């Protein structure tokens, strides 16, 4: 299949904002995609080469890409760089450079999707000495045979800047439409495997029946089951039917561990592969997990003096570190508190009740200094539960989780089977969708940020406030650098920003307000931290803001 057909799809997707139309375009394209390409095309449509959990990365920056285009077209690098300043879009500038190319080679071959994809794989897999050079040559070869529009989309894919507005929801519906299967079956299979390529293939070749048979697979991360809030331990206990498992809510980073023999892969909450950054955890897992093949989940916590937990940002620092990892192992020791098991030696456990899974978990691990079982109390007594909760806080933990003893594991669902209880109004994780340039000494820095909650029904980000405090000067420099490439529109001092960056925001109160479309406004919002571990779609939802508002009013009534 020609790459030009995919380029044509990208162009059409870019031209419409209508979700139904986008879904139809993608569905039509999937229908005509041959079986052997079906596993890769869904990701290419999302503007990616690999799923997020695949460790491979292209590792190509703007500079290297421009070099490759320059070699392929004969247009000097400087000229391409200048053109980017005009167009504001490297993709456009690549297309222009290809148009300028004087001669087409006689041997120029029309690009196929397979060739483009295979080249991306080679680029990703080029490692070690001279790899930058090899990456560049592979890409130059592609650009040599690319038509202008093809070049534009290849460049955007390489840099991860495809803007076709196709998110996971559209892809799910398009797979259902293309192969006449139920969207909820596609969703289910995707929640279990996080692999749209695989799901599309099963949908096409085996239909609804095949999708129904899809189950947990070692090596493919499962979407994590999530929790809702409860105002108190008592409320949680009532909601759970009078008896529940209470566990410490550790304040760290959630991980999903897949062990297959002596191979261990660890995924973050966003299902990114973080294995390489935490070799200490890998070896501890190999020692503690006795089963040959197993998938477990837990919270990775940074431990400080006297074994007290340190803020979760410390764990994220470990995830980010690529070099001198040994030094980081010393500086930020980690401890993994396991709270669930989803698969053991060929047996999928997600449909077992939680109490059973906990038993299996206890049988599966031998606790060690670094690998522990989440501390748990099963009770039907409010006072006991309250005491457990207070003890957890005293030890420096975030609060407790209450879990229904009879509940199955629901991948990707934020339901009432798990409830979290924390002492204060919770911070919100919100997406930056706008900002304002500062004044005077800070005129070159973005200062005040318009933040939004996610509305999963419309897929929109709805503003709930403006955050201007809590930032250090360094933060502002960093945010300006990070957000500048995401500016989509400027109007006077205000800039509109593509929703990509998630920040944690604290506030004094949630107010009802007509000021924003959401109907809510945060009072005294203040920046707490950058949430690099969350994608915009994982930001707090507008429903959550509404729920927190209700809690707040309830608490007010109690006071
Ligand atoms: N014992 C535990 N059982 C389950 N989750 C736990 C436990 N201890 C800590 N956690 C963490 O709490 C999270 C559950 O809360 P929630 O579903 O609200 O996730 P979240 O959106 O990341 O919220 P938060 O910012 O509060 O962690 C889990 O994703 C996990 O990271």
From TrEMBL:
Q: Where does ATP bind?
A: 247, 254, 269, 299, 339, 414, 420
Domain (ATP-dependent DNA ligase family profile) ranges: 327-455
User: CDD domains, alphabetically?
Assistant: Adenylation_DNA_ligase_Arch_LigB, OBF_DNA_ligase_Arch_LigB
Asked whether the UniProt record includes Metal-binding among its keywords, one would answer: yes
The catalytic residues are 249 (n6-amp-lysine intermediate)
Indicate the segments annotated as coiled coil, or none if absent.
none
Catalytic activity from the UniProt record: NAD(+) + (deoxyribonucleotide)n-3'-hydroxyl + 5'-phospho-(deoxyribonucleotide)m = (deoxyribonucleotide)n+m + AMP + beta-nicotinamide D-nucleotide; ATP + (deoxyribonucleotide)n-3'-hydroxyl + 5'-phospho-(deoxyribonucleotide)m = (deoxyribonucleotide)n+m + AMP + diphosphate
What broad class of enzyme is this? ligase
State the needed cofactors, names only.
Mg(2+)
Task: Write out the entry's keywords from A to Z.
Answer: ATP-binding, Cell cycle, Cell division, DNA damage, DNA recombination, DNA repair, DNA replication, Ligase, Magnesium, Metal-binding, NAD, Nucleotide-binding
Q: Which domain of life is it from?
A: Archaea
Its EC number is 6.5.1.6
Entry's Gene Ontology BP terms: cell division; DNA biosynthetic process; DNA recombination; DNA repair; lagging strand elongation
Under the GO molecular function aspect, what terms does this record hold? ATP binding; DNA binding; DNA ligase (ATP) activity; metal ion binding
What SUPFAM superfamilies would the database entry show?
A: ATP-dependent DNA ligase DNA-binding domain, DNA ligase/mRNA capping enzyme, catalytic domain, Nucleic acid-binding proteins
Family the entry assigns: Belongs to the ATP-dependent DNA ligase family.
Function statement: DNA ligase that seals nicks in double-stranded DNA during DNA replication, DNA recombination and DNA repair.
What is the name of this protein?
DNA ligase
Q: Which organism is it from?
A: Thermococcus pacificus
């Amino acid at each position: 299949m020609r790459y030009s057909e995919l380029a044509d799809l990208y162009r059409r997707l870019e031209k419409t904002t209508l979700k139904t139309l986008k879904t139809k375009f993608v569905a039509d394209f999937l229908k005509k995609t041959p079986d052997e390409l079906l596993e890769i095309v869904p990701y290419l449509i999302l503007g990616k080469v690999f799923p997020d959990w695949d460790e491979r990365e292209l590792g190509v920056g703007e500079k290297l890409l421009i070099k490759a285009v320059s070699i392929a077209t004969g247009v000097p690098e400087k000229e391409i760089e200048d053109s980017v300043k005009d167009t504001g879009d490297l993709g456009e500038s690549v297309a222009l450079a290809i148009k300028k190319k004087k001669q087409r080679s006689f041997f120029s071959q029309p690009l196929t999707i397979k060739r483009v994809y295979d080249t991306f794989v080679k680029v990703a897999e080029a490692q070690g000495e001279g790899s930058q050079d090899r990456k560049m040559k592979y890409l130059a070869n592609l650009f040599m045979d690319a038509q202008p529009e093809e070049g534009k989309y290849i460049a955007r894919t390489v840099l991860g800047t495809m803007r076709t507005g196709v998110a996971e929801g559209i892809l799910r519906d398009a797979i259902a439409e293309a192969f006449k299967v139920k969207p909820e079956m596609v969703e289910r299979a995707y929640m279990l495997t996080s692999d749209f390529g695989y799901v599309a293939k099963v949908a096409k070749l085996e239909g609804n029946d095949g999708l129904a048979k899809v189950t947990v697979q070692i090596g493919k991360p499962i979407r994590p089951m999530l929790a809702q809030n409860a105002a108190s331990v008592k409320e949680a206990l009532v909601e759970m039917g009078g008896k529940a498992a209470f566990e410490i809510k550790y304040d760290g980073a959630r991980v999903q561990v897949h062990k297959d023999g002596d191979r261990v892969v660890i995924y973050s909450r966003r299902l990114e592969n973080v294995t390489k950054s935490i070799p200490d955890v890998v070896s501890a897992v190999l020692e503690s997990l006795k089963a040959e093949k197993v998938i477990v989940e837990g919270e990775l916590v940074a431990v400080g003096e006297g074994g007290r937990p340190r803020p979760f940002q410390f764990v994220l620092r470990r995830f980010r570190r690529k070099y001198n990892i040994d030094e980081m192992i010393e500086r930020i020791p980690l401890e993994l508190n396991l709270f669930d098991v989803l698969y053991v030696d060929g047996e999928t456990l997600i449909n077992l009740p939680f109490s059973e899974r906990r038993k299996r978990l206890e049988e599966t691990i031998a606790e060690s200094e670094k690998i522990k079982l989440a501390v748990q109390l099963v009770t039907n007594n409010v006072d006991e539960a309250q005491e457990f909760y207070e003890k957890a806080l005293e030890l420096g933990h975030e609060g407790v989780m209450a879990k229904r003893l009879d509940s199955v594991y629901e991948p990707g669902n934020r339901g009432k089977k798990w409830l979290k209880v924390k002492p204060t109004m919770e911070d919100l994780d919100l997406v930056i969708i706008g900002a304002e340039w500062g004044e005077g000494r800070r005129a070159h820095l973005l200062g005040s940020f318009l933040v939004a909650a996610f509305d999963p029904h419309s897929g929109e980000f709805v503003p709930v406030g403006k955050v201007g405090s809590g930032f250090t000067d360094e933060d502002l420099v960093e945010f300006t650098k990070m957000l500048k490439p995401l500016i989509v529109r400027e109007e006077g001092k205000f800039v509109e920003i593509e929703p990509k960056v998630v920040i944690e925001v604290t506030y004094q109160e949630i107010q009802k307000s007509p000021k924003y479309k959401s109907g809510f406004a945060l009072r005294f919002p203040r920046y707490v931290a950058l949430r690099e571990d969350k994608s915009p779609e994982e930001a707090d939802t507008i429903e959550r803001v509404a729920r927190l508002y209700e809690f707040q009013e309830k608490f007010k009534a109690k006071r």
